[in-house]
Amino acid sequence: MRDSPDSAAITVEGLWKIFGAGAHRVLGGDDRHLDPAALRERTGCTAAVRDVSFDVRPGEVFVVMGLSGSGKSTLVRCLTRLVEPTAGEIRIGGEDIARASPARLREIRRHRVSMVFQHFGLLPHRRVVDNVAYGLEIQGVGRAARHARAAEILSLVGLDGHAGAYPDQLSGGMQQRVGLARALAVDPQVMLFDEPFSALDPLIRRDMQAEVVRLHREVGKTMVFITHDLSEALKLGERIAIMRDGSIVQVGTAEELVGSPADDYVADFVRDVPRSHVLTLRRISREPEPGEPLDGPELPAATLVKDALEAASVSSRPIRVVDGGTLVGVVDRVDLLAFLSGRDLTERAGA
User: Fold this and answer.
1) Same-domain status, 226 and 280
2) For the CA atoms of 27, 32, 36, 38, what is the dihedral angle to 10 degrees?
3) In this structure, are 280 and 268 located in the same domain?
4) Do 107 and 231 belong to one domain?
5) How far lies 340's CA from each of 95, 243, 343, in Å?
């Protein structure tokens, strides 16, 4: 179920971006349904974003994931009209972005929405404190006030003591922290991340992912995060949209994508994800059988399967799976072994 436009931080309806001279002609005809290769051959146009609709809830981390060329970066750039959409509606905080004047659009970008890119875009001739304060400077905030705010945000992102450094004196991970601090300094309602960590070394990338999780917990900003890395999407996203050829194939939680993929494309994407690290007891629980004991250990329905193994190992009784004190089902050792072995749990129910 989608949120109402009034309750969503971001609402996107029927968004299209077609590159090429005949974009509007393509959109008005049947050619828009052609696959990407056929569309390019027939019209010379490329449909980078195809009839995309989704909502992002206030305070949510919403991840858009797809392979190279899937349209995800074009999509995020359309949200603030860095790339002009061909058609569709975009609302941020209820405001129609498509109808915003150039002056109003500049205000939205300066005050309400910040963006973090893969390439840090730091000003090499400016110290870290001035890079972080740059957005505030553009807003007209005085030097003392913006430096005080920059120092506060540098502390938040773990860069105390580096205010006077220049970008080329910092590691890649530290430079990206400066970019993150710059985006946070203007106190935006929405933060957009376009594959910000893909150029970083794996260990630094993992640290930056943890940093985003921590910052989101502390500041609670609405975040839209673009990535081609499934593990990154699963780690960061409260909900994940998977794109293919400009369209959204499925939107759901990590558990929904892994447990109920919409099609073979999504299933192939999530095939190598350890299911016990994503799926919860709610998904594998079943109705108690007649006479089955209900005095075993009790665990919340949101418990990950991997986290239930210890309880199952120390008790021969079925685990009672509860939600708010209400029994929603049971899981015993046989159920867990069947799940871990990949056997369909409905086999036991039908046995």
Assistant:
1) no
2) -120
3) no
4) yes
5) 47, 29, 8
The whole-number average pLDDT for the span 132-137 is: 92
In this structure, the chain runs to a length of 351
Type and span of the H or E element at 13 = strand 10-19
Q: Are residues 207 and 144 in the same domain?
A: yes
pTM reported for the whole predicted model: 0.86
Three-state DSSP string of 64-111 = EECCCCCCHHHHHHHCCCCCCCCEEEEEECCEEHHHCCHHHHHHHHHH
pLDDT tens figures, 244-260: 999 999 999 999 999 99
Residues 246, 172 share a domain: yes
Residues 105, 246 within the same domain: yes
Q: pLDDT digits over 184-214, tens only? A: 888 899 999 998 888 778 888 888 888 888 8
Cβ neighbourhood burial of 96 (10 Å; 0-12, 13-18, 19+): exposed
Q: Domain boundary at 275, 308, 327, which?
A: 275
pLDDT of 328: 94
Give the residue from 136, 129, 131 showing the smallest Cα distance to 164. 129
- Domain, as residue range, for 318: 276-350
Q: Report d(CA 57, CA 277) in Å as an integer.
A: 25
Same domain, 157 and 128: yes
Residue 107 has pLDDT above 70, yes or no: yes
- Average confidence score pLDDT of the chain: 89
CATH number at residue 302: 3.90.1280.20
